[in-house]
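I am hoping you can look over what I have pasted underneath with an eye to the fold:
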Amino acid sequence: INRSVLLKGVLTSSAVHLKSGLLPLKKSSEAAAGVARRLNISLPALATRFVLSNQKVDTALVGVSRPEHLQEIVRAVLAGPLPAEVVDELRPLAITDPLQVDPKNWKLVN
């Protein structure tokens, strides 16, 4: 189960509002946004399709605040997984530091 495809907005345009203590997370989000621009898709669509590219994930939870956001996610699901070369390009952007990737820890960083 992937419980937060968009990581509380980090994989959306809202990443610009991240605290300075989350700079590594922000940089990875910006790099992923560059890949999304190159593919002519949104960052949320890229994130959704990236999750779909992992055969070990059978459930993905996506929170949205507007109907048009849900429509965007549905279009991404219908587009299917990303090509393997794009997945390979995105993998190095992964962050494993729990202070960065677990929102419950964000209050601990400046």
